[in-house]
Specification:
Blueprint: H1 6-17, E1 25-26, E2 35-42, H2 46-57, E3 62-65, H3 73-77, E4 81-83, H4 88-92, H5 99-109, H6 116-135, E5 142-144, E6 154-156, H7 159-172, E7 176-178, E8 182-189, E9 194-202, E10 205-217, H8 226-232, E11 240-241, E12 249-253, E13 262-263, H9 264-267, E14 273-274, E15 282-285, E16 304-306, H10 320-328, E17 335-340, H11 341-350, H12 352-358, E18 371-373, H13 376-382, H14 387-404, E19 431-440, E20 446-447, E21 454-456, E22 462-468, H15 485-502
Parallel strand pairs: 1-8, 2-3, 2-10, 3-7, 10-22, 11-19
Antiparallel strand pairs: 4-6, 5-6, 8-9, 9-10, 14-20, 15-19, 16-17, 17-19, 18-19, 21-22
Helix pairs in contact: 2-7, 2-15, 5-6, 6-15, 11-12, 13-14
Length: 504
């Protein structure tokens, strides 16, 4: 099944039962509301807060429902990379980038199954929101090219700082945020066929909120819904789940209650879906990760990857999303990153995760998850890799890079997606070997939307007054993911949705 996932089958089934909203609640003429607003936002992550920036700027009465006891969702715990082109930060550092180049990179890494119009809308908004953050005192600490891009475009922000800034702005502007309050069902007006409200629950009590202009679904993905993962992407059972705890699919399922678990609010109203067949794990997590940032990007600084048998198994310059599933296919689901001091030092300067994972590993008491040897053979023995096989693998790679600049086995000719040149691994000097696995940090698939964040049903029609943004939407990433586009996409499409709602 291609872009339309198995979720679409459920949506079609729902429409076979009824020509109207299959399981959305029908407005009762005598409905008593617990609150009336212009806009209701389900999910207080980056997308929801982005939407509220626009709606409160336009003096729209705005309610944000968040099922967790805290604000931020996946945006608060992500790596903080924000991909945007032609930013002041890039220009100051002499980095040449533009929208067309950004678009090409995203379509290439997405296998050209992502929607160009959705990508264009995101790219345009990414620069605008970057400037908004700068204007409100939030700035990146660096920009680099970790995955999916051939120029440095991933700006590293402190995600907690971003969320705090946006939350303060919208609440100062009058937005109401109700935490520990779960959005459960959409409410449809049968006379207009418009979404006109949300049924929610809090502390065991049902609540009904009216939305006069629109509802935004921004409730995240379904990483923490084992039933859904097992049903639609069973390979993810092998991956460590490191996503935000609230990512149980509630928003997508507000669109089809026939489907088990999350995603509910959009699908029950017949929303179409995209890209659920492309859910992938992300390579680079230390075994048994406890946090989303227990994550290395060491391969993009020059490390090569071996499996338990001492053999390479993929082109290391691929996106970590493209490396995730091949790693799960290896013995014990592990890839062993092999690198020297120069690669280690570069990685620690480039990525906060590598700084945390590798700090002190060059001293007398290296970290338990890093094997350090006086040379490659010593390190391989400590990592319990077959020394002779592994050494031949590394020596062949080195020979290819020295003689041709590209390896003959997998065609690696860059550090990351065309950026930087591969380097040799000196086998006679100190070598580090770090076992890494794949983790599920996001699903990045789900509801089909227009470039204005309007939700589309299975017949290609807009669902009146229903919008979606963030991880629960499909069509933007396609078959793979560029670093920094999920965090940025959430906030950007939230803002796009807010403006579209205001125009109703």
């Amino acid at each position: 099944m291609k872009r339309r996932s198995l979720f679409k089958v459920g949506a079609v089934s729902a429409f076979a039962i009824s020509s109207t909203a299959a399981h959305a609640l029908t407005l009762n003429p005598s409905q008593k509301w617990d609150g009336e607003y212009d806009v209701i936002i389900v999910g207080a992550g980056g997308a929801g807060l982005g939407c509220a920036i626009e709606t409160t700027d336009r003096k729209l009465k705005t309610l944000i429902l968040e099922k967790m006891p805290f604000v931020g969702g996946a945006s608060a715990i992500c790596g903080g990379q924000y991909s945007a082109a032609n930013t002041p930060y890039q220009i100051e550092r002499g980095i040449k980038d533009d929208d067309e180049h950004f678009l090409k990179n995203m379509l290439d890494i997405g296998g050209h199954v992502n929607d160009p119009e959705l990508v264009k809308a995101y790219i345009k908004e990414a620069l605008s929101h970057f400037i908004w953050l700068s204007d409100h005192g939030v700035h990146p600490s660096m920009v680099y090219a970790p995955s999916g891009m051939d120029v440095p475009r991933a700006h590293r922000f402190d995600p907690a700082e971003v969320v705090k800034c946006m939350q303060k702005y919208v609440t100062d502007n009058g937005a109401v945020i109700m935490t520990s309050t779960k959005g459960e069902r959409l409410i449809c007006d049968p006379q207009t066929n418009q979404i006109c409200g949300v049924k929610a629950s809090s502390k065991g009590k049902d609540l009904y909120f009216k939305a006069n202009k629109g509802v935004l679904l921004s409730a995240g993905g379904f990483c923490h819904n084992p039933a859904m993962l097992n049903r639609y992407v069973p390979m993810m059972k092998l991956a460590a789940v490191v996503a935000a705890p609230g990512a149980t699919g509630d928003g997508i399922n507000m669109a089809n209650s026939l489907i088990v678990g999350g995603l509910n609010m959009a699908l029950e109203y017949g929303a179409d879906t995209l890209d659920t067949g492309y859910v992938r794990a992300s390579f680079g997590y230390k075994p048994n990760p406890r946090h989303i940032n227990d994550f290395s990007l060491i391969q993009f600084s020059g490390a090569i990857l071996l499996n338990k048998n001492g053999q390479r198994f993929a082109k290391e310059s691929l996106s970590y999303k493209e490396l995730g599933n091949p790693t799960l296919d290896q013995p014990e689901g592990l890839g062993y990153a092999v690198f020297d001091d120069s690669i280690r030092e570069k990685a620690m300067k480039s990525w906060v995760g590598d700084k945390v994972l590798l700090e002190g590993s060059d001293g007398p008491n290296p970290r338990a998850h890093v094997f350090v040897g006086k040379n490659f053979a010593d390190a391989a023995a400590k990592a319990r890799l077959p020394v002779e096989v592994a050494l031949k693998t590394v020596e062949k790679y080195n020979s290819d890079i020295q003689s041709k600049g590209v390896d003959s086995e997998f065609g690696r000719d860059s550090l990351s997606s065309g950026y930087g040149k591969p380097v040799v691994i000196p086998v006679d000097k100190r070598i580090y070997i770090m076992p890494l696995t794949s983790g599920l940090m996001s699903t990045c698939a789900g509801v089909r939307i227009t470039p204005k964040a309007e939700v589309i049903n299975i017949f290609g029609e807009k669902i009146p007054h229903l919008y979606a943004a963030g991880e629960m939407t499909g069509g933007i990433h396609g078959s793979a993911y560029m670093t920094g586009t999920a965090f940025a996409k959430a906030m950007c499409y939230g803002r796009i949705a807010g403006r579209a709602i205001a125009e109703n």
